[in-house]
Amino acid sequence: MDTLKVSGYYGDYKTVNTPYGGVHGYLEEIVIPEMVDGKLVTEFKLAELNNITDLTSPWLEIGSITIPKSVETIDLDVVILGNERIIKPEVIYCYSDSAAQKYAIDNNIPYELLDENDDPTPGDLDGDGNLTYMDVSKLIDAVNMEVPVTDELMAAADLDHSGTIDYLDLSLLIDMINNT
Predict the structure, then answer these.
(1) Rounded CA gap, 126 and 145, in Å?
(2) What single string gives the DSSP state of each residue in 38-98?
């Protein structure tokens, strides 16, 4: 199975004035994707996000981090102004029995569990929890407009997040199955 370490910045941070002068780095939200380029994301290191160490404030804060179940390794250590510290978000959105939930508990970080029923596994069109060629068959039917496209089907089948179900989604699904 191909896996991918997340690096690269998924959003902007905003700077605000602090009562003590200077700027205060605040990242409102970080959302870690489950899949990138057809590869499962298994590791997240805050220090490797682009521009994170460019902050000149030792008061970096994060509103929330959403971590998929696929992430097994989490590292929120970062060095700012020569000081290493663990950045604790206000909340971690995660799944039950995941590495993210364990990380939140071990580090006394508030967390909220995501309802897995409302967040289908990308590509799992038949809802059995596995990516198989049965899902490919269902996606072909959807692409050829042989079945109605429900919200649930769209959520699981729109793998490139384009807002439509097409042959690119089909290609991505086949890649995902071949990489597992």
Answers:
(1) 17
(2) TEEEEEEEGGGSTTGGG---S--EEEEEE--TT--EEE-EEEETTEEEE---SEEEE-TTS
Place of tokens 């690269």: 8
pLDDT along the chain (180 residues), means of 10: 34 39 60 76 74 54 83 79 71 90 92 72 83 90 83 85 90 88
Whether 49 and 110 map to the same domain: the answer is: yes
Q: State how many domains the chain has.
A: 2
- 157: containing domain: 120-178
CB count in 10 Å sphere of residue 178 = 10
Regarding whether 101 and 126 lie in a shared domain, the answer is no
Residues 84, 170 within the same domain: no
Are 130 and 69 found together in one domain?
A: no
Among residues 97, 117, 137, the one where a domain terminates is: 117
- Compute the Cα dihedral for 65, 66, 69, 70 and give only its sign: negative
